[in-house]
């Protein structure tokens, strides 16, 4: 078992016992439309949704110092072992419970050195 998977198991066990801090969430990745020879959309884009576990909180001091920071941006931690694939700034994250429930665009992404999770700066909308 990897360190990321072991940490995810511990965090998820704790969350199950107390009901927080990691809640059900979704990573929504936009699809790509296909175009016909005339440049019109032949098939619209279909987004892909991946379930994950996330924790949301106020933005960190480091996030507040980033270019593009706006009041209302939040910090979202996602356990890397709770989903497959990666996350990009094209994705959106849907938090399903808690005071930060809602859908957020991904404004910035950081990884921790142990590869346990993703730290995102999210913006509602």
Would you mind describing this structure in some detail?
The protein is globular, with a radius of gyration of 16 Å. A six-stranded antiparallel beta barrel has the order 1-4-5-8-7-6. A two-stranded antiparallel sheet has the order 2-3. The N and C termini lie far apart (37 Å). The protein is an alpha+beta fold and 125 residues long. The relative contact order is 0.24. The model has no long low-confidence stretch (mean pLDDT 88). The protein is 16% helix and 41% strand. The chain is built from two helices and eight strands, in the order αββββαββββ.
* C-alpha geometry: globular
- Tally of strands: 8
Structural class: alpha+beta
Strand order, sheet with most strands: 1-4-5-8-7-6
Average pLDDT over all residues? 88
Task: Please report which band the strand proportion falls in: under 5%, 5-15%, 15-25%, 25-35%, 35-45% or over 45%.
Answer: 35-45%
Helix content: 10-25%
* SSE pattern: HEEEEHEEEE
The largest sheet, given as strand count, sense and whether it forms a barrel, is:
6 strands, antiparallel, barrel
Number of helices in the DSSP assignment: 2
Q: Rg, please? A: 16 Å
Helices and strands in order, then pairings?
Layout: H1 3-18, E1 23-29, E2 34-35, E3 41-43, E4 48-58, H2 61-64, E5 74-79, E6 92-95, E7 102-111, E8 117-124
Antiparallel strand pairs: 1-4, 1-6, 2-3, 4-5, 5-8, 6-7, 7-8
Keywords: Signal
Signal peptide: 1-19
Spell out the key features of this protein.
125 residues; two-stranded antiparallel ribbon; alpha+beta; 41% strand; signal
């Amino acid at each position: 078992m990897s360190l990321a998977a072991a940490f995810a198991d511990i965090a998820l066990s704790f969350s199950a016992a107390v009901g927080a801090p990691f809640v059900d969430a979704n990573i929504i990745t936009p699809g790509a439309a296909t175009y016909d020879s005339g440049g019109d959309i032949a098939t619209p884009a279909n987004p892909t949704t991946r379930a994950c576990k996330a924790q949301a909180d106020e933005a960190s001091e480091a996030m507040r110092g980033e270019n593009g920071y706006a009041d209302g941006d939040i910090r979202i931690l996602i356990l890397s072992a709770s989903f497959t694939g990666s996350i990009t700034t094209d994705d959106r994250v849907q938090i399903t419970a808690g005071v930060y429930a809602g859908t957020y665009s991904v404004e910035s992404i950081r990884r921790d050195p142990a590869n346990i999770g993703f730290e995102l700066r999210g913006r509602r909308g």
